[in-house]
Each structure stands twice: as structure tokens, then as C-alpha cells.
């Protein structure tokens, strides 16, 4: 397995099982806007979300570059990709859950859409456990060496 393959596998491992992300888009004026969103499905390197057509995230994502940021303990992931929107009612039914019902009604509602992010590249950082991070930062401050930790940037 090449270093690239290993980094890609590690990135995938860090993405799978993540339920919540900060989803960042750019407005028409170029201002970056982030909002928390719930991952409905990870299918290969496509992440799926349910949102509303009337929500600003939809037009700011369709056919445009977006960013997804995950944080879990001392581990961080950033994914960049292109958004696309689907109105497929059958697929919405398959992805639907109680959380969607609570704020979005029914999958048949035409305002509810599937927002896909097709990932082009990703990065991850591993800060280790909290004690090790503090020790590493202190060591870096004293020695001038960068703190240790795992980091990789991956083209998908």
C-alpha cells in the first residue's frame, strides 16, 4: 500500500461514523458561512445531507465548492468538494429518519432535498490524547520544533 493509499484509508476511517459537521459555503458576495449539519449517509466519497430548497445552503452549494469540517476529541478532518442537489423522493425516503421528521416534516415535501458533497480532497490532523497534546505544545514552545501529531493531505 502506498503512502497515498494509507493516508486515504486513514481519512476514510476518520470520516465514517461521523454524524455532525460544520458545512461551509460561500455567499454570492464571497463571504464564508458555516452551519452545523447532520450526515445522512457516506457513500464512497459522497456525503449526503437532507436540507430544504428554501435554505441558503442549497443554492450556495449546488455546483460550487464547499467544505466540511469534523472534530472528534483531538482529531480534526477537513473535506473539500462540490455540492449537488437531488429531489429524488425515493432516495429521500431511504435516508429519512426521526431527526428529519422533527424539523422537516415528510420526505415527500418538495422543499426537502438531498444535498450531496462529492469530495475532491481532504486533510486530517491527529493531536493525540489531551495530556500528550499539552506536553507536545510545551515541548514545541521550548525547542521550537513543531508539535508532533499525524497530518496528511489527500487528493481523492
TrEMBL record:
Top-level lineage group: Bacteria
InterPro entries linked to this entry: Split_barrel_FMN-bd (IPR012349), Stress-Dev_Protein (IPR052917), YdaG_split_barrel_FMN-bd (IPR038725)
Domain General stress protein FMN-binding split barrel per the UniProt entry, residue ranges: 7-145
Protein name in the entry: General stress protein
Source organism per UniProt: Nocardioides daphniae
Amino acid at each position: 500500500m502506498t503512502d497515498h493509499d494509507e493516508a486515504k484509508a486513514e481519512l476514510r476511517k476518520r470520516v465514517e461514523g461521523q454524524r455532525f459537521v460544520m458545512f461551509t459555503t460561500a455567499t454570492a458576495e464571497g463571504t464564508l458561512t458555516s452551519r452545523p449539519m447532520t450526515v445522512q449517509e457516506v457513500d464512497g466519497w459522497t456525503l449526503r445531507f437532507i436540507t430544504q430548497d428554501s435554505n441558503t445552503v442549497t443554492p450556495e452549494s449546488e455546483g460550487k465548492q464547499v467544505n466540511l469540517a469534523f472534530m472528534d476529541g483531538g482529531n480534526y478532518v477537513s473535506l473539500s468538494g462540490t455540492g449537488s442537489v437531488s429531489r429524488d423522493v425515493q432516495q429521500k425516503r431511504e435516508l429519512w429518519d426521526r431527526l428529519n421528521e422533527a424539523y422537516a416534516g415528510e420526505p415527500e415535501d418538495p422543499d426537502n432535498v438531498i444535498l450531496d458533497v462529492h469530495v475532491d480532497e481532504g486533510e486530517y490532523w491527529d493531536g493525540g490524547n489531551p495530556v500528550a497534546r499539552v506536553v507536545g505544545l510545551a515541548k514545541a514552545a521550548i525547542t521550537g520544533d513543531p508539535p508532533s501529531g499525524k497530518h496528511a493531505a489527500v487528493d481523492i
